[in-house]
Design brief:
globular; Cytochrome Bc1 Complex, Chain A, domain 1; 6-stranded mixed beta sheet; alpha+beta
Length: about 475
C-alpha cells in the first residue's frame, strides 16, 4: 500500500462560476425574535461528609467512561504568611512531587497508567489538584489522591526543581505586559490585603526550604478545609466506599494556618499607575475596581452588566474600539468572584498612537453603563450569552468539577449553580442600571498602563491625571 503524505489538491473554478447558489437578496432588516429560553440543566450532585469533616460531592454521569476529580483546599494566597507572599504556588507545585512511599516518577507513572495527569495550582482562595482518568481507574485514583493529601513528602531534590522552574517562569513573566499589568493592578487595588498577590516573589521562592513546605503542608492540608468532587461514569456505592476508606482516617495535625477573612476596602486613586517598557509599540491598559462577591444580591445583575459592557463579542466596548475604530484587536472586561470581593477588570492592548483615544472611549463606555438604562434587547442578548456559556461549560466533566469546587470554596451548596442561572434569567434593565451606577463609574477605577513611558505620559496627560511609576 502506498501512503501519500503532504498531498495538496487544487480545484480550479472557472471564471464567473459560483460554488453555492444564491439569490443575493439582502438579509432582513429585522431579525425574528428570540425563541423561548431553555432552562439550563445543572448536574445532580450527591453530597456527603466524612466524620473528619471532609466534604465529598459526587456527580454520576453514565456513558463516556472517564471521571474528572477535583480536590480543593480552602486558603491559597489568603493563607500565606505575611512575609512569604505567593508561597501557595510553591506548595502547590511540590504537593504532587512524591509521597512518603512513592517518588514523583512513580506518581506520574501511576496517573499516566490511569489515562490522566496531575494538575495542581494555587489561587487567591484555594489550592487545587485536578485529574481526569479512565473510569476503571477511578478507585485507584482516589487512593493516589489520598496518598498525596495525607503523605506528601517534599523531597529536597523535588523542591529544588520546583523552585528553579518557578523562578524561571517568573523571569519570563517579567517581560510579559499582561503579567506586569495584572500584578500592578492588583497591588494598587488591594494594597496590604492578600488579594494583592498574583504570583510568588523571587524572595519567597529563594528563601523557602523543604522543611518550610512540610510545616505549611501540615498547617493547610486539613480534612475540614477540603472537598473532593468527582464527575463522570462510576459506581456511586463503590466510589463512595473507596473515598471513605482512603480519606476516613485522615486527621489534621497541629495548628491550622489562619486564612484572611476581612473584606478588602475599596481604594480609589487619581493617578495612572504605570510600568515602563522601553521600545514597546503597544500600551496595555487596565481599569479595575472592586465588584460584588458571588454572595452579593446584585451579583447576577453585575454579570449581565459586565457582558453588555465588555464581557462578550458584540459588547459595547468591543463594538466601539475594535469594530468601529480599530484601536485594538481583543478588548474585554471580566468580573471575577473571589470569596471576599469581586474584581471588575477592563483590559485592552492598543497601538501607541491611540492610547489616549482608547482610554477616552473606555471611560465613555464605563460611564455610559453608570448613567443609562440598557434596552431590553441588550439585556436579553447578554442573558442568553451567559446562560448559553454555562450550558456549554456543563458539557465538560472537568469544567463541572471546577465550577462545583469553586462554589464550595466560596461557601455555597451545589444548588447555587442552578440558583445563579435563575437569577441571571430574572435580571431586568433596571437591575443592570443599578449595578452600573454602583460599580462602573470611572472615578471608582484604578488605572494601570504598561508600555513606553513617554507615550503613556503624553497620551494620558491630557486627562489631568497624576502618574505613579512602578519601580
Amino acid at each position: 500500500m502506498t501512503i501519500l503524505t503532504g498531498l495538496v489538491i487544487a480545484v480550479l473554478i472557472p471564471a464567473g462560476s459560483v460554488l453555492f447558489a444564491a439569490d443575493n437578496k439582502p438579509l432582513p432588516k429585522e431579525m425574528p425574535p428570540y425563541g423561548p429560553q431553555a432552562p439550563v440543566k445543572t448536574p445532580v450532585v450527591k453530597p456527603f461528609r466524612l466524620d473528619n469533616g471532609m466534604t465529598v460531592w459526587l456527580v454520576p454521569q453514565p456513558g463516556f467512561p472517564k471521571v474528572s476529580f477535583k480536590v480543593s483546599v480552602k486558603g491559597g494566597y489568603t493563607a500565606d504568611p505575611k512575609d512569604k507572599p505567593g508561597l501557595a504556588d510553591l506548595l502547590a507545585a511540590t504537593l504532587t512531587q512524591g509521597t512518603a512511599g512513592k517518588t514523583a516518577k512513580q506518581l506520574a507513572e501511576e496517573i499516566a497508567a490511569a489515562g490522566g495527569d496531575l494538575d495542581s495550582g494555587a489561587m487567591a482562595d484555594s489550592i487545587t489538584i485536578a485529574t481526569t482518568v479512565l473510569s476503571e481507574k477511578a478507585e485507584a485514583t482516589v487512593q493516589l489522591l489520598a496518598d498525596i493529601m495525607q503523605r506528601a513528602s517534599f523531597a529536597e531534590t523535588e523542591v529544588a526543581i520546583a523552585k528553579t522552574n518557578l523562578l524561571s517562569s517568573l523571569q519570563v513573566n517579567e517581560a510579559d505586559p499582561s503579567f506586569l499589568g495584572r500584578r500592578a493592578l492588583y497591588r494598587a487595588l488591594f494594597g496590604p490585603h492578600a488579594y494583592a498577590v498574583t504570583a510568588p516573589t523571587k524572595e519567597t521562592l529563594t528563601a523557602t526550604r523543604a522543611a518550610d513546605l512540610k510545616r505549611e503542608f501540615e498547617r493547610r492540608m486539613r480534612p475540614d478545609r477540603t472537598i473532593l468532587v468527582a464527575v463522570g461514569d462510576f459506581g456511586e456505592a463503590a466510589l463512595s466506599g473507596s473515598i471513605r476508606g482512603a480519606f476516613g482516617a485522615w486527621k489534621a495535625a497541629g495548628e491550622a494556618a489562619p486564612i484572611a477573612s476581612e473584606k478588602p476596602q475599596p481604594r480609589f486613586s487619581k493617578a495612572v499607575v504605570y510600568v515602563a517598557r522601553e521600545g514597546s509599540v503597544q500600551t496595555a491598559l487596565y481599569l479595575g475596581t472592586l465588584g460584588p462577591e458571588r454572595a452579593a444580591p446584585d451579583y447576577a445583575a453585575a454579570r449581565v452588566a459586565t457582558a453588555i459592557y465588555g464581557g462578550m463579542f458584540g459588547s459595547r466596548l468591543v463594538n466601539n474600539i475594535r469594530e468601529d475604530k480599530g484601536y485594538t484587536y481583543s478588548p474585554g472586561a471580566r468580573l471575577t468572584p473571589n470569596t471576599l470581593a469581586g474584581v471588575l477588570v477592563t483590559r485592552a492592548d492598543v497601538r501607541n498612537a491611540v492610547t489616549g483615544a482608547s482610554f477616552n472611549e473606555m471611560q465613555y463606555e464605563l460611564n455610559r453603563m453608570a448613567t443609562t438604562v440598557p434596552d431590553e434587547e441588550e439585556v436579553e442578548h447578554a442573558k442568553r450569552y451567559l446562560l448559553g456559556s454555562l450550558a456549554l461549560q456543563l458539557q465538560s466533566r472537568a469544567a463541572v468539577s471546577r465550577a462545583l469546587s469553586s462554589l464550595w470554596v466560596d461557601g455555597f451548596t451545589p444548588e447555587e449553580l442552578s440558583r445563579q442561572a435563575r437569577m441571571v434569567q430574572s435580571v431586568k434593565p433596571a437591575d443592570v442600571q443599578a449595578t452600573g451606577k454602583k460599580y462602573f463609574p470611572v472615578w471608582r477605577s484604578t488605572i494601570v498602563a504598561v508600555g513606553e513611558e513617554k507615550v503613556i505620559r503624553d497620551e494620558l496627560g491630557a486627562f489631568g491625571l497624576e502618574f505613579q511609576k512602578v519601580q
